[in-house]
Design brief:
alpha/beta
């Protein structure tokens, strides 16, 4: 069964808008777990625009599932990750002026630094994923630097789906499937995420060998109207209904 990691960054975004103590990030995480989330994902950005250091420590101490920490390769952030010791780390590219992560990591041109950081994290018992575009060359490079997993960037797929650009959407889906197939052959765990919502998630959940989908914004947005627990439940239902199907 395909697992669901719920990204709760935007719970913190709402809190930071007023620099208050609510909505409570830990309470949100526990509600997501109660609704069936198999992991809690947070991105500790260098500019601390939403998730704060204290959130990461508090989540690690109190959640019952897995903590998946998204992070850049900045030395300060790597140091925090080694201290917190989350279950999983997903290394992502990061730009200060972006609204959200815009693309996948360029593993090919960062092999030396990534290999060094991955080795440090794995020595601490942390499973390491790399957030990459669905490109076979990046998948191969991820295996070469010692990653345990890849998380395929589904952003272009999601945008083309939303805009009803059928040719682009089908092309991106094909790329995701092909990259996923290579990842599995390389012995990598296959995850995916970015821009996934209640309308486009089914096709991604059906990809052969898919292990986990990390979804945040669409769940938090829906939760504004129906509540967080119900929003997570509905996403779980969509993934569960299709996770037994490998290919169409």
């Amino acid at each position: 069964m395909v697992k669901l990691g719920v990204n709760i960054d935007h719970i913190a975004t709402l809190r930071q808008a007023r620099k208050e103590n609510e909505p409570d990030v830990l309470k949100a995480a526990l509600l997501c777990e109660k609704a069936g989330a198999e992991a809690i994902t947070v991105h500790l950005r260098e500019d601390r625009r939403h998730i704060q250091d204290k959130d990461v420590y508090l989540l690690k101490k109190n959640i019952k599932t897995r903590l998946n920490l998204e992070m850049s390769v900045a030395q300060e952030i790597v140091k925090i990750a080694l201290d917190v010791n989350p279950d999983d780390v997903c290394i992502v590219p990061e730009k200060r002026n972006e609204l959200t992560t815009e693309g996948g990591l360029d593993v090919i041109n960062q092999k030396t630094i990534l290999k060094e950081i991955i080795e440090k994290l794995k020595r601490s018992g942390i499973r390491v994923s790399l957030f990459i575009n669905p490109e076979i060359e990046q998948v191969n490079a991820s295996a070469e630097v010692g990653a345990d997993c890849v998380e395929l960037h589904t952003g272009k797929y999601a945008i083309s789906f939303k805009n009803k650009l059928k040719d682009v959407y089908l092309s991106e889906l094909k790329r995701l499937k092909e990259a996923g197939e290579i990842a599995l052959k390389k012995g990598l765990i296959l995850n995916a995420g970015h821009g996934l919502d209640y309308e486009n998630v089914k096709e991604i959940a059906e990809i052969k060998g898919m292990n986990e989908l990390n979804i945040g914004f669409s769940i938090v947005s829906k939760a504004v109207f129906v509540g967080l627990e119900k929003a997570v439940n509905e996403m779980k239902d969509l993934i569960r209904d299709n996770s037994h199907i490998f290919n169409r």
